[in-house]
Design brief:
Blueprint lengths: L1 H25 L5 H13 L5 H6 L3 H11 L3 H14 L7 H23 L5 H50 L4 H11 L5 H15 L4 H12 L2 H16 L3 H65 L1
Helix pairs in contact: 1-6, 4-5, 4-6, 6-7, 7-8, 7-12, 8-9, 9-10, 10-11, 11-12
Length: 309
Amino acid sequence: MISAALFFLLAFITLCSLVWSGIELFRNREDPLADRLEELQSQAMVSTTRSSRRKGGGFLNSFLYFVSLVPGGEEWIRDTEKELAQAGIRTKQAVAIYAIGNLLFMALMLGSMAYFQRDNGVAQKFGGMMAAFLLGWLLPQQVLHRLVRRYRRKLQEALPDTVDLLGIVLGTGLALDQAMMRVSEEMEFIYPELAAELATVVMQVKAGQERGKAFQQLVRRTGIEDIKSLAAMIVQSERFGTSLSQALTVYAEALRNRRRLRAEAAVAKAGIKMLFPIVLFILPVLFVITLVPGILSVLHDLRNGLGAR
């Protein structure tokens, strides 16, 4: 009884820690200027090494240092930091909070499996613990991959309208930085993700960074080919002095055509995707509903006929 109460107490504490990690990882800050400066600082800083983590203070920094000591830990930290940036989560503590949440979730899965299999054999316990370990390791990564895909999809959907508006604003005579900032302000409540990315590029340029390098970092953050083409178009247009507003208008129309083709492809795939749930779930139920009453009636008639004999 005491062991069960202790297990549920530890599970509750772990669950509360997971909730705290998720809130800290995804909550919106109330100071957008501080967030933007923190993003710029994280982009300008060189990748943190083990020695710098060891010298830095704070629990989260020390935790990342111990993670980097594990074989493959430094590479995992870099890959996770890149994926979090591509998911729109770019605070300095994001990697540490994600790592803590991943570890807590794995501990919760292992503890729950050990508790529910406490009366089973060694082989069953080993299989259950391996399954819990794999689930605790892979599920947070799949959630992060899904967040990256969702963030990219939002940027992809916002790109045609934003590029079209940018071409219109440039046609009024504004400079590129002023036009991007104006478009960012106009699109802030409609497409906040792409508006934040454009504002980041403008602030990097105002801070003294080259425009080409700022757009390269934008492409690296998002990982979208259309944004890469847009960045190359803007840089080349500025270098050769060609009309950027006309080029953006044509490019916006091409982006709209691509968006329409993607929508048509998604509609075409819907029929194939619906085939599997229909075969696995709907058809068996339909067979049961249509055939079982007839089979029961035939069996009832046969039973009555045999009883009459």
